[in-house]
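WARN no homologs supplied; continuing
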Amino acid sequence: MNEESLVKRLLDEGERFYNLNRYEEALIVYERVIRLDPKNINAYNEKGINLRCLKRYKEALAAHERAIYLAPNDEVANICKICSIGDLWSSSSSRP
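OK structure emitted
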């Protein structure tokens, strides 16, 4: 199996874990994709989405910011970044 088809298979596997609410397992898969393909925007976006599900908002924001760094006009990454900022704000005990 070549690297491109492995990455595709892993992205599909991560999505299956996400759909089963198995977010930690999905994260492991997306981290593996990132190791294989460090410029894979989908992996960073999906990593961030799973981190948000786990309420790990700062890490989610960092994942989406990395996706934006790689592809500044990526709509999903930009929307997810906004959501992550909202999550951080709403979970903060120091809000006004």
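Residues 3-19 form the longest helix (17 residues).
OK
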